[in-house]
Write a structure and sequence with these properties.
Elements (H helix, E strand, L loop, with lengths): L9 H11 L4 E5 L15 H8 L3 E5 L1
Parallel strand pairs: 1-2
Helix pairs in contact: 1-2
């Protein structure tokens, strides 16, 4: 495992990195979202990545 520093929009750079390296899946951890208010999560990084990614995205609670 290695780390990589990227500059730019977090969601865009994560997706771009995954595409360049032919990832099959991106796995992200969800922060706490209040029950009954999922609309508050739409601006969060995990949801942005899920919307932009061409590969599967697994969001862990």
């Amino acid at each position: 495992m290695a780390s990589k520093n990227l500059i730019g929009s977090r969601a865009t750079e994560i997706v771009r990195f995954a595409n360049r390296n032919e990832f099959d899946m991106i796995i992200l951890v969800l922060r706490h979202i209040q029950d009954g208010q999922p609309e508050n999560a739409l601006g969060r990084l995990s949801y942005q990545v899920a919307a932009l990614a061409s590969c599967n995205v697994l969001l862990l609670k």
